[in-house]
Design a protein that fits this description.
The chain is an all-alpha fold. It has 20 helices and no strands.
């Protein structure tokens, strides 16, 4: 019988797989979805963004739920609703139904994903064992994202884009069974506390308005609409700031919000998310299918070098380097590898596969593999058990909101300039900014940790 740590690891990884799979599983299918449901290019991007917004908006609440109601119990509840939303999305005949189902998936994932990471940090003590577990969990996250593109291409070509969502049914059932077994055999450590639903609602509304304000110019919207929606977003952010200062039950515990290492680490995480979370896969998908003429299967398989390079570096090389190098130095090394690859995509958008896809995506994959585990380790090491869920939720929130805002801005930049080169250039700028954040990240915490 597997030990609690072993059971926690594979249950966490399987649950995280379904979460990250659905971040990318519709990517290669988007051109087919767009044609089948009669969506515009920017509207089709909301099929991807709706998931990320629902995910990010309630992640901090989901993280607190893991602390309050129990990790294994929350895993079972959230994966059940996630699977139901997948069924509705797979059967949708209207664009708005699909977008709503994707948002519901994201909301469910907001509870599911923090629970997977919290399970790791509570079943693995700090040290090499936890570092290895985080590396495996991060590798599954990276592999799941890449696998989603491959699965999306194969299913779209051979069956239908609908299968990219319906495939979640058997996976979700497997996670549900394992979560119920874990709940029976591992006692949940529940803690008293209240959930700040108002704060979560304000945060979700604010980021949704900000994302919409950034994306509507690409749809040729009325000139004043982005200003109105953007102003609403600013007002909502101000309301969120005031509400968080007045409530005793904040979305982010004060101990974490005052920790400079965690704040800067999550800023860097958001900036990397602007490239790696959605944008890179989204624009490569459209470039390969609409510009290069690849079929969905060919486009999905073309992501293999990117996925494989990230997976190998993250799972094999990065844990070894972390024994001899600081996380900050590995983050900088990742930026140095990623940015030339993005610039390459900006400069060269035609030619043989080896030059237009293979070389730049391998460089980007190596960079992503070097950055992800050090960032995840930075923002969770030294966090007291009662803040474990909040810390992992904050990390995932930064990643998802960074990805959503990044995709919206990049989509508009591409629409306005008439070329996806602007999108890759914007992603490169975001990754370069990671160096500025990493340069100010302290090497060690000073004083008591989260007391």
């Amino acid at each position: 019988m597997p030990s609690p740590s072993q059971r926690g690891l594979w249950t966490s990884c399987l649950a995280q797989l379904i979460v990250v799979l659905d971040i990318s599983v519709v990517n290669v299918a988007l051109p087919s979805i767009q044609a089948d449901l009669g969506l515009g290019r920017v509207s089709a991007s909301w099929v991807a963004m709706a998931y990320s917004l629902g995910f990010a908006g309630l992640l901090l609440v989901g993280a607190r739920l893991a602390d309050v109601v129990g990790t294994a119990r929350l895993l079972a509840w959230s994966v059940g609703t996630f699977t139901l939303a997948s069924l509705i999305g797979g059967l949708a005949t209207d664009g708005w139904v699909l977008i709503a189902a994707r948002a519901a998936q994201g909301i469910s994932a907001a509870a599911l994903s923090p629970a997977t990471f919290t399970l790791l940090t509570t079943t693995h003590a700090e040290g090499p064992g936890r570092t290895r577990a985080i590396a495996v969990w991060t590798a599954v996250s990276l592999a799941g994202g890449g696998m989603g593109n491959i699965v999306s291409g194969v299913l779209t070509d051979l069956i239908s884009w609908r299968a990219t969502l319906l495939i979640n049914l058997p996976i979700g059932l497997g996670v549900l069974i394992s979560a119920l077994v874990l709940h029976r055999r591992t006692p949940d450590q529940r803690r008293a506390g209240r959930i700040d639903l108002l704060g979560a609602g304000l945060a979700t509304a604010a980021f949704t308005c900000a994302t919409y304000a950034l994306s509507v110019p690409g749809e040729g919207a009325m000139r004043g609409l982005p200003v109105v929606v953007g102003t609403t977003a600013v007002a909502l952010f101000i309301a969120l700031f005031v509400q968080q200062h007045r409530t005793p039950h904040t979305l982010v515990p004060g101990a974490l919000a005052r920790d400079r290492l965690i704040v800067l680490g999550n800023i860097a995480t958001a900036l990397t998310g602007a490239c790696f979370q959605v944008g890179l896969w989204y624009f490569l998908t459209y470039r390969m299918q609409t510009q290069f003429g690849y079929s969905p299967i060919q486009a999905g398989l073309a992501f293999l070098p990117l996925t494989a390079s990230m997976l190998v570096v993250n799972l094999w090389l990065t844990p070894r380097l972390m024994k001899r190098r600081t996380p900050r130095s590995l983050i900088v090394a990742g930026v140095v590898s990623t940015v030339p690859g993005l610039i390459w995509l900006t400069v060269l958008d035609h030619g043989p596969f080896a030059l237009t896809i293979l070389v730049p995506t391998v460089a980007i994959g190596i960079g992503g593999g070097l950055m992800n585990t050090p960032l995840a380790t930075l923002v969770t090491t030294g966090v007291r058990p009662e803040y474990a869920g909040a810390a992992s939720g904050l990390m995932n929130t930064a990643k998802q909101f960074g990805g959503t805002i990044g995709l919206a801005a990049a989509t508009t930049a591409a629409a306005i300039t008439g070329t996806d080169r602007a999108a890759f250039l914007l992603m490169a700028a975001a990754v370069v900014a990671v160096i500025a954040a990493a340069a100010t990240i302290p090497t060690h915490r000073c004083g008591p940790q989260h007391t």
